[in-house]
TrEMBL record:
Superkingdom of the source species: Eukaryota
InterPro entries, per database record: PCRF, Pep_chain_release_fac_I, Pep_chain_release_fac_I_sf, PrfB
Record's signal peptide: none
SMART domains: PCRF
Keywords: Protein biosynthesis
Family: Belongs to the prokaryotic/mitochondrial release factor family.
PROSITE patterns to which the protein is assigned, alphabetical: RF_PROK_I
Record-level Gene Ontology MF annotations: translation release factor activity, codon specific
Originating organism: Capsicum annuum
GO CC terms of this entry: cytoplasm
Domain Prokaryotic-type class I peptide chain release factors: 216-232
Annotated protein name in UniProt: Peptide chain release factor PrfB2, chloroplastic
Annotated Gene3D superfamilies: 3.30.160.20, 3.30.70.1660, Release factor
């Protein structure tokens, strides 16, 4: 509530709209907090009503009414869990949509297959959350999987949640590509970049600083997606950062998408520089190996997924790989909040 009072005071300042970008950010945060407060009050009211209803049902010996109210309480419980997640988002850009990038580590086909599994996990997670998901760029592996891929996740708080996934993910399993059925360990790096989107870009891109290359889109095994050079790769010459897109059918659309990714990458690099941090980006993840992993997925000889930052673990890796990530995200955000308050 203290933050809400601060925002309300800022909204009442006469000169607030002298800076439209700042004013828009304040207005949006104020509206978001007001909605959260109203949601909590509504949940409290509903909770009291159903508890009273259960008491009444027990007094009148009405099992059907009691069962109906118990089901409603379980639904409220799930809703509260989601609100708890939202309450942990306090970062400046947590409300933003984002790009999720996955890059296979060393290990050839095995790691590329793991990269494909991880990307599918994030697509499923995003879809379960009701977010829009679109593939921006994808480089298929020679035999299976992907070497790298980027998706755009569009929706409120997408970055705030997905930032929990930044780091190296390790898989242990019996390889389906090993005829001797030996156990293999594979690594994948994940990066998450906010899409600022409200005019608050931090880096101005000059056309003269760009090298734009056009090439023919290609699928796995060299199979042609189309016969024109519609795919676009853009390099920001001063930094060497690149972005590419081959998902759209027209060169114009691919260029626009690649520019949007490049802008977000440059913005993230600038934010990291200002905070004297290393950008969490796949291009700067030079060692995808044991030392910097955040989560381990074990499919053999036992079954487990464990987050090494929080020690949260589950024994059902299938559900996690199908996109059930919210408990891992909640655990990470809670732990991060506790550290910030120390």
């Amino acid at each position: 509530m203290d933050r809400l009072e601060v925002l309300s005071a800022q909204l009442n300042k006469a000169d607030l709209w002298d800076d439209p970008v700042h004013a828009g950010r304040i207005s949006r945060e104020h509206g978001s907090l007001m909605n959260k407060v109203e949601d909590v009050m509504a949940i409290e009211q509903e909770l009291v009503e159903h508890i009273d209803m259960i008491k009444l049902a027990q007094e009148e010996n009405d099992p059907e009414l009691e069962l109906e109210s118990v089901k409603a309480l379980l639904r409220i419980r799930r809703n509260v869990k989601q609100k708890e997640l939202e309450a942990l988002l306090s970062g400046e850009h947590d409300y933003c949509s984002c790009y999720i990038e996955v890059q296979a580590g060393a290990g050839g086909t095995e790691s590329m297959d793991w990269a494909s599994m991880v990307m599918q996990m994030y697509k499923s997670w995003a879809q379960h959350k009701g977010y829009g998901v679109s593939v921006v760029d994808e480089m298929p592996g020679e035999i299976a999987g992907i070497k790298r891929a980027t998706i755009e996740v569009d929706g409120e708080n997408a970055f705030g949640y997905a930032k929990s996934e930044v780091g190296v993910h390790r898989l242990v399993r019996i390889s389906p590509f090993d005829s001797a059925k030996r156990r293999h360990t594979s690594f994948v790096a994940v990066a998450v970049i906010p899409i600022l989107g409200d005019g608050s870009t931090r880096v101005q891109i000059n056309e003269s600083d760009l090298r734009i290359e056009r090439f023919r889109s290609g699928g796995a095994g060299g199979q042609s997606v189309n016969t024109t050079e519609s795919a676009v790769r853009i390099t920001h010459i001063p930094t060497g950062i690149t972005a590419s897109c081959q998902n759209e059918r027209s060169q114009h659309s691919n260029k626009a998408s690649a520019l949007a990714v490049l802008q977000s990458r440059l913005d993230q690099l600038e934010m990291a520089r200002q905070a004297q941090m290393n950008a969490q980006h796949t291009q700067s993840l030079t060692e995808i190996s044991w030392g910097n992993q955040i989560r381990t997925y074990v499919l053999h000889p036992y079954r487990m997924v464990k987050d090494l930052r929080t020690n949260y673990e589950v024994s059902d890796p299938d559900s996690v790989l199908e996109g059930d990530l919210d408990d891992f995200i909640l655990s990470f955000l809670s732990t991060s909040l506790d550290k910030d308050e120390e």
